[in-house]
């Protein structure tokens, strides 16, 4: 079942199926297409949001934590975020 594009703001990069939330999109891409979650700052693709968060903290500590799917920022540079901001980021994506 494919939802009308104008009703779903997020589309799968592989099959173009529409989704209402980023969580639904990320879960679909990972489960249906064995895709990974892309880093917004480099070519790294992580197998989980937890691994992406760790990658961003250690490889891009001075860069803002940003959602690849919608460009939402989560409180500033990775090395300055508190636990609540990281939890918000993880919960936003997957």
Distance between the termini: 22 Å
Structural class category: alpha+beta
- Please tell me the overall pLDDT: 90
- Identify low-pLDDT runs: none
What percent strand? 15-25%
Question: How is the largest sheet built, in terms of strand order?
Answer: 1-2
Helix content: 25-40%
Shape: globular
Largest sheet: 2 strands, antiparallel
Radius of gyration: 14 Å
InterPro entries: Znf_C2H2_sf, Znf_C2H2_type
Domain C2H2-type: 10-38
Organism: Oesophagostomum dentatum (Nodular worm)
Protein name: Zinc finger, C2H2 type
Q: What's the short version?
A:
The protein has 94 residues and is α+β, with helices and mostly antiparallel strands. The chain has helices at 22-33, 49-59, 83-93, and strands at 10-11, 18-19, 37-38, 45-46, 64-66, 73-77.
Keywords summarizing the entry:
94 residues; alpha+beta; 2 domains; two-stranded antiparallel ribbon; two-stranded antiparallel sheet; 3 helices; Znf_C2H2_type
Description of the molecule:
- One of its GO terms (molecular function) is zinc ion binding.
- With 94 residues, the chain is of the alpha+beta class.
- The protein folds into two domains: 1-35; 37-93, no CATH class.
- Helices cover 36% and strands 17% of the residues.
- It has helices at residues 22-33, 49-59, 83-93; strands spanning 10-11, 18-19, 37-38, 45-46, 64-66, 73-77.
């Amino acid at each position: 079942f494919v939802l009308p594009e104008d009703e779903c703001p997020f589309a799968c990069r592989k099959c173009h199926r529409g989704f209402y939330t980023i969580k639904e999109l990320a879960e679909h891409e990972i489960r249906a297409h064995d895709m990974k979650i892309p880093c917004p700052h480099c070519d790294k693709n992580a197998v989980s949001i937890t691994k992406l968060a760790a990658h961003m903290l250690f490889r891009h500590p001075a860069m803002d934590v940003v959602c690849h799917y919608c460009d939402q920022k989560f409180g500033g540079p990775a090395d300055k975020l508190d636990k609540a901001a990281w939890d918000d980021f993880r919960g936003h994506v997957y």
